[in-house]
Amino acid sequence: MARDTGAGEPVDRRARFPRWVYGQGTEPDPRFTLANERTFLAWIRTSLALIAAGIGVHALHLQIPETLGDVAAIVLIVAGIGAAGQAFVGWARNERAMRQGRPLHGAVTASLLTVVVVLTTVLLALAVFVL
Amino acid sequence: MRPSELYDRGAQPERTLLAWGRTCLASAVVLALVVKVLAVEADAAPILLTVTGLSLPVLAWLLALARYRRVHRELTGTGAASPRPGGGAAMTVATAAALLCGALALVLVVR
Hints:
The complex is a heterodimer.
Chain A (H helix, E strand, L loop, with lengths): L2 E2 L5 E2 L7 H4 L7 H30 L6 H35 L7 H22 L2
Antiparallel strand pairs in A: 1-2
Chain B lengths: L11 H30 L2 H10 L1 H22 L12 H22 L1
Protein backbone atom coordinates (compact mmCIF):
# COMPACT_ATOMS: atom_id res chain seq x y z
CA MET A 1 0.00 0.00 0.00
CA ALA A 2 1.63 3.18 -1.18
CA ARG A 3 1.45 6.44 0.72
CA ASP A 4 2.60 9.86 -0.39
CA THR A 5 5.58 11.27 1.46
CA GLY A 6 6.25 14.98 1.69
CA ALA A 7 8.33 14.85 -1.46
CA GLY A 8 5.42 13.37 -3.37
CA GLU A 9 7.17 10.04 -3.95
CA PRO A 10 5.03 6.99 -3.27
CA VAL A 11 6.88 4.87 -0.72
CA ASP A 12 5.70 1.51 0.48
CA ARG A 13 6.39 2.01 4.17
CA ARG A 14 4.82 -1.20 5.35
CA ALA A 15 7.31 -3.23 3.34
CA ARG A 16 10.27 -1.77 5.21
CA PHE A 17 11.56 -3.80 8.09
CA PRO A 18 11.86 -3.01 10.98
CA ARG A 19 8.89 -0.65 11.22
CA TRP A 20 10.17 0.70 14.53
CA VAL A 21 13.01 2.30 12.53
CA TYR A 22 11.34 3.19 9.26
CA GLY A 23 7.82 3.92 10.50
CA GLN A 24 8.41 7.65 10.85
CA GLY A 25 10.66 10.53 9.88
CA THR A 26 12.27 11.31 6.55
CA GLU A 27 15.08 9.69 4.62
CA PRO A 28 18.47 10.97 5.87
CA ASP A 29 21.45 11.70 3.61
CA PRO A 30 22.40 8.30 2.08
CA ARG A 31 26.01 8.83 3.17
CA PHE A 32 24.94 8.91 6.81
CA THR A 33 22.79 5.81 6.38
CA LEU A 34 25.75 3.99 4.84
CA ALA A 35 28.11 5.19 7.58
CA ASN A 36 25.63 3.91 10.18
CA GLU A 37 25.59 0.58 8.35
CA ARG A 38 29.40 0.37 8.50
CA THR A 39 29.34 1.14 12.21
CA PHE A 40 26.92 -1.78 12.61
CA LEU A 41 29.31 -4.01 10.65
CA ALA A 42 32.29 -2.92 12.77
CA TRP A 43 30.34 -3.91 15.90
CA ILE A 44 29.51 -7.31 14.36
CA ARG A 45 33.20 -7.90 13.61
CA THR A 46 34.05 -6.88 17.18
CA SER A 47 31.48 -9.38 18.40
CA LEU A 48 32.95 -12.16 16.22
CA ALA A 49 36.49 -11.34 17.40
CA LEU A 50 35.42 -11.54 21.07
CA ILE A 51 33.65 -14.87 20.47
CA ALA A 52 36.69 -16.23 18.62
CA ALA A 53 38.91 -15.09 21.51
CA GLY A 54 36.64 -16.91 23.97
CA ILE A 55 36.80 -20.11 21.91
CA GLY A 56 40.57 -19.68 21.72
CA VAL A 57 40.96 -19.40 25.49
CA HIS A 58 38.84 -22.53 25.87
CA ALA A 59 40.47 -24.59 23.11
CA LEU A 60 44.13 -23.71 23.60
CA HIS A 61 44.32 -25.21 27.12
CA LEU A 62 46.45 -22.42 28.55
CA GLN A 63 48.66 -23.23 31.55
CA ILE A 64 46.23 -21.63 34.02
CA PRO A 65 43.69 -22.94 36.54
CA GLU A 66 40.79 -24.48 34.60
CA THR A 67 38.07 -22.47 36.35
CA LEU A 68 39.86 -19.20 35.55
CA GLY A 69 40.16 -20.15 31.88
CA ASP A 70 36.49 -21.11 31.69
CA VAL A 71 35.38 -17.87 33.38
CA ALA A 72 37.54 -15.81 31.02
CA ALA A 73 36.14 -17.69 28.00
CA ILE A 74 32.56 -17.18 29.17
CA VAL A 75 33.13 -13.47 29.89
CA LEU A 76 34.61 -12.96 26.40
CA ILE A 77 31.80 -14.86 24.68
CA VAL A 78 29.07 -13.06 26.65
CA ALA A 79 30.77 -9.75 25.77
CA GLY A 80 30.68 -10.90 22.13
CA ILE A 81 26.95 -11.63 22.36
CA GLY A 82 26.47 -8.20 23.95
CA ALA A 83 28.42 -6.58 21.11
CA ALA A 84 26.15 -8.28 18.55
CA GLY A 85 23.12 -6.95 20.42
CA GLN A 86 24.66 -3.48 20.57
CA ALA A 87 25.33 -3.70 16.81
CA PHE A 88 21.68 -4.14 15.93
CA VAL A 89 20.13 -1.97 18.64
CA GLY A 90 22.66 0.81 18.02
CA TRP A 91 22.08 0.69 14.28
CA ALA A 92 18.29 0.83 14.72
CA ARG A 93 18.41 3.65 17.28
CA ASN A 94 20.86 5.75 15.22
CA GLU A 95 18.89 5.25 12.00
CA ARG A 96 15.70 6.23 13.79
CA ALA A 97 17.33 9.28 15.39
CA MET A 98 18.70 10.42 12.01
CA ARG A 99 15.28 10.01 10.41
CA GLN A 100 13.75 12.18 13.11
CA GLY A 101 16.56 14.71 13.18
CA ARG A 102 17.33 13.97 16.82
CA PRO A 103 20.81 13.67 18.38
CA LEU A 104 22.50 10.26 18.31
CA HIS A 105 22.97 8.15 21.39
CA GLY A 106 26.17 8.03 23.40
CA ALA A 107 28.77 5.27 23.50
CA VAL A 108 27.99 3.69 26.87
CA THR A 109 28.33 0.11 25.56
CA ALA A 110 31.73 0.90 24.06
CA SER A 111 33.05 2.19 27.42
CA LEU A 112 31.66 -0.86 29.23
CA LEU A 113 33.19 -3.20 26.65
CA THR A 114 36.58 -1.49 27.00
CA VAL A 115 36.58 -2.06 30.77
CA VAL A 116 35.55 -5.72 30.41
CA VAL A 117 38.12 -6.49 27.71
CA VAL A 118 40.98 -4.73 29.54
CA LEU A 119 40.17 -6.48 32.85
CA THR A 120 39.90 -9.92 31.19
CA THR A 121 43.13 -9.45 29.26
CA VAL A 122 45.09 -8.25 32.31
CA LEU A 123 43.77 -11.14 34.45
CA LEU A 124 44.57 -13.71 31.76
CA ALA A 125 48.06 -12.27 31.25
CA LEU A 126 48.70 -12.30 35.00
CA ALA A 127 47.48 -15.90 35.23
CA VAL A 128 49.65 -17.06 32.33
CA PHE A 129 52.86 -15.25 33.28
CA VAL A 130 52.71 -14.96 37.08
CA LEU A 131 50.76 -17.96 38.44
CA MET B 1 23.66 1.64 -18.98
CA ARG B 2 24.68 5.20 -19.67
CA PRO B 3 27.65 6.65 -17.81
CA SER B 4 26.61 8.50 -14.71
CA GLU B 5 28.09 11.41 -12.85
CA LEU B 6 30.31 10.71 -9.89
CA TYR B 7 27.88 10.75 -7.01
CA ASP B 8 30.22 10.95 -4.09
CA ARG B 9 34.01 11.01 -3.91
CA GLY B 10 33.92 9.04 -0.71
CA ALA B 11 32.83 5.85 -2.59
CA GLN B 12 30.44 5.24 0.30
CA PRO B 13 28.37 2.39 -1.23
CA GLU B 14 31.54 0.56 -2.27
CA ARG B 15 33.16 0.97 1.15
CA THR B 16 30.00 -0.30 2.75
CA LEU B 17 29.88 -3.33 0.43
CA LEU B 18 33.53 -4.11 1.26
CA ALA B 19 32.72 -3.86 4.96
CA TRP B 20 29.89 -6.34 4.38
CA GLY B 21 32.34 -8.66 2.62
CA ARG B 22 34.79 -8.52 5.54
CA THR B 23 32.04 -9.12 8.06
CA CYS B 24 30.42 -12.04 6.23
CA LEU B 25 33.83 -13.67 5.72
CA ALA B 26 34.71 -13.18 9.39
CA SER B 27 31.42 -14.67 10.50
CA ALA B 28 31.86 -17.68 8.19
CA VAL B 29 35.40 -18.17 9.55
CA VAL B 30 34.25 -18.04 13.19
CA LEU B 31 31.42 -20.48 12.45
CA ALA B 32 33.93 -22.81 10.76
CA LEU B 33 36.16 -22.46 13.84
CA VAL B 34 33.21 -23.46 16.02
CA VAL B 35 32.59 -26.51 13.81
CA LYS B 36 36.25 -27.46 14.07
CA VAL B 37 36.36 -27.23 17.87
CA LEU B 38 32.91 -28.82 18.28
CA ALA B 39 33.93 -31.71 16.03
CA VAL B 40 36.65 -32.58 18.52
CA GLU B 41 34.54 -32.31 21.66
CA ALA B 42 30.80 -32.59 20.98
CA ASP B 43 28.15 -34.73 19.38
CA ALA B 44 26.31 -34.36 16.09
CA ALA B 45 23.43 -31.96 16.90
CA PRO B 46 25.42 -28.74 17.53
CA ILE B 47 27.72 -29.55 14.61
CA LEU B 48 24.74 -29.90 12.29
CA LEU B 49 23.32 -26.63 13.61
CA THR B 50 26.60 -24.84 12.94
CA VAL B 51 26.92 -26.22 9.42
CA THR B 52 23.35 -25.07 8.74
CA GLY B 53 24.28 -21.73 10.31
CA LEU B 54 26.97 -21.25 7.65
CA SER B 55 24.13 -20.30 5.29
CA LEU B 56 23.52 -17.13 7.36
CA PRO B 57 26.67 -15.23 6.27
CA VAL B 58 25.96 -16.27 2.67
CA LEU B 59 22.41 -14.96 2.93
CA ALA B 60 23.59 -11.73 4.59
CA TRP B 61 26.10 -11.21 1.78
CA LEU B 62 23.41 -11.71 -0.90
CA LEU B 63 21.08 -9.27 0.86
CA ALA B 64 23.91 -6.73 1.17
CA LEU B 65 24.71 -7.13 -2.52
CA ALA B 66 21.08 -6.49 -3.47
CA ARG B 67 21.14 -3.48 -1.14
CA TYR B 68 24.30 -2.15 -2.77
CA ARG B 69 22.81 -2.48 -6.25
CA ARG B 70 19.67 -0.64 -5.17
CA VAL B 71 21.61 2.17 -3.48
CA HIS B 72 23.93 2.48 -6.46
CA ARG B 73 20.96 2.69 -8.84
CA GLU B 74 19.25 5.31 -6.74
CA LEU B 75 22.33 7.46 -6.20
CA THR B 76 23.48 7.44 -9.82
CA GLY B 77 19.95 7.82 -11.17
CA THR B 78 20.31 4.85 -13.54
CA GLY B 79 17.10 2.88 -13.87
CA ALA B 80 13.84 3.51 -12.11
CA ALA B 81 13.81 4.21 -8.38
CA SER B 82 12.71 1.20 -6.37
CA PRO B 83 9.24 1.45 -4.83
CA ARG B 84 10.57 -0.56 -1.90
CA PRO B 85 13.63 1.09 -0.38
CA GLY B 86 16.07 -1.15 1.46
CA GLY B 87 15.32 -2.09 5.04
CA GLY B 88 17.17 -3.89 7.77
CA ALA B 89 16.94 -7.50 6.52
CA ALA B 90 20.69 -7.87 5.93
CA MET B 91 21.44 -6.44 9.40
CA THR B 92 19.03 -8.86 11.01
CA VAL B 93 20.65 -11.87 9.31
CA ALA B 94 24.19 -10.70 10.16
CA THR B 95 23.18 -10.19 13.81
CA ALA B 96 21.59 -13.65 13.87
CA ALA B 97 24.84 -15.16 12.53
CA ALA B 98 26.90 -13.48 15.28
CA LEU B 99 24.39 -14.50 17.97
CA LEU B 100 24.46 -18.10 16.72
CA CYS B 101 28.27 -18.06 16.94
CA GLY B 102 28.05 -16.76 20.50
CA ALA B 103 25.40 -19.27 21.59
CA LEU B 104 27.30 -22.26 20.15
CA ALA B 105 30.57 -21.02 21.69
CA LEU B 106 28.81 -20.80 25.07
CA VAL B 107 27.51 -24.36 24.63
CA LEU B 108 31.06 -25.41 23.85
CA VAL B 109 32.54 -23.89 27.01
CA VAL B 110 29.75 -24.51 29.52
CA ARG B 111 28.93 -28.07 28.49
